[in-house]
Amino acid sequence: MPVLMIRYQVADEGAQEVADVVRAAFAEVEERRPDGIRYTYLRRAGGTEFVALLELDEGAENPLPGMEAARRLQATVARWVVGPAPEPRPFEVLGAYRALG
């Protein structure tokens, strides 16, 4: 199963807002606890670069578009992104230890 990666950089003044909205999105994911999804969001330590990893089980539907906090995250990223809009790109998992399914 491929993992989708989204990588982007935001303006300095928007980095904290994006980080806060990521935390809010994960609070909603934790509350809903959807099946068939593995989701990770990273920020370069102290920086403005973010990376999201999303893996869905075969046949599982992505629950994120149906979550208000995830839609707010998308809108916040769009407001602060530097460069082209972030786009999910598929990656093949070659190895993972207790990280991705």
SSE arrangement:
Elements: E1 3-10, H1 15-32, E2 37-43, E3 49-56, H2 68-80, E4 81-82, E5 89-91
Antiparallel strand pairs: 1-3, 1-4, 1-5, 2-3
Helix pairs in contact: 1-2
Q: How does this structure look, described?
A:
With 101 residues, the chain is of the alpha+beta class. It has 2 helices and 5 strands, in the order βαββαββ. The protein has helices at 15-32, 68-80; strands spanning 3-10, 37-43, 49-56, 81-82, 89-91. Strands 1, 2, 3, 4 and 5 form a 5-stranded antiparallel sheet that branches.
Element order: H for helix, E for strand? EHEEHEE
Cα shape: globular
* Rg calc: 14 Å
**Into which percent range does the helicity of residues fall?**
25-40%
Strand-pairing-aware structural class: alpha+beta
Task: Point out poorly predicted stretches.
Answer: none
Number of helices: 2
- Major beta sheet, specifics? 5 strands, antiparallel
Strand content: 25-35%
N-to-C CA distance: 9 Å
- State mean pLDDT (0 to 100 scale): 93
User: What is the β-strand count?
Assistant: 5
Keywords:
alpha+beta, globular, single chain, 2 helices, 101 residues
Gist?
The protein is an alpha+beta fold and 101 residues long. 31% of the residues lie in helices and 28% in strands.
